[in-house]
Amino acid sequence: MQTTYIETQQISFQDFKNQILEDYKLGRISREMSYLGRREVLTGKAKFGIFGDGKELPQLAMAKVFKNGDFRSGYYRDQTFALAVDALSVESFFAQLYADTSVEREPASAGRQMNGHFATRSLNEDGSWKDLTAQKNISSDISPTAGQMPRLLGLAQASKIYKSVKFDGSEKFSKEGNEIAFGTIGDASTAEGHFWETLNAACALQVPMIVSIWDDGYGISVPTMKQRAKADISEMLSGFQRKEGENQGCEIIQVKAWDYPALLDAYARAEHFARTESVPVVVHVIEVTQPQGHSTSGSHERYKNEERLSWEADFDGLVKFREWILNYSIEIEGKEEIIASVEELNAIDEEAKKKVKNGQKSAWENYQKTITELAFGVLPLVENLKSQNSEIETYINQYNKLVSKAKKDVFHLVRKSLLATRGTNSSERSQLMQKYNEIFEVEKDNYSSHLYSQSQWKAENVKEIKPVYSDASEDVDGRVVIRNNFDKIFTKYPETLVFGEDAGNIGDVNQGLEGMQEKYGELRVADTGIREATILGQGIGMAMRGLRPIAEIQYLDYILYCLQGMSDDLATVQYRTKGGQKAPVIIRTRGHRLEGVWHSGSPMAGILNLSKGIMVLVPRNLTKAAGFYNTMLQSDDPAVIVECLNGYRLKEKQPDNLGEFTVPVGEIEITKKGKDVTLVTYGSTWRIVMEAANELEKLGISAEVIDVQSLIPFDLTHEIAESVKKTNRLVVIDEDVEGGTSAFILQQILEKQKAFRFLDSDPLTIAANDHRPAYASDGDYFSKPSSDDMVERIYALFNETNPQKYPAIF
Question: Which residue range or ranges hold the Transketolase-like pyrimidine-binding domain (predicted)?
Answer without folding.
Answer: 476-650
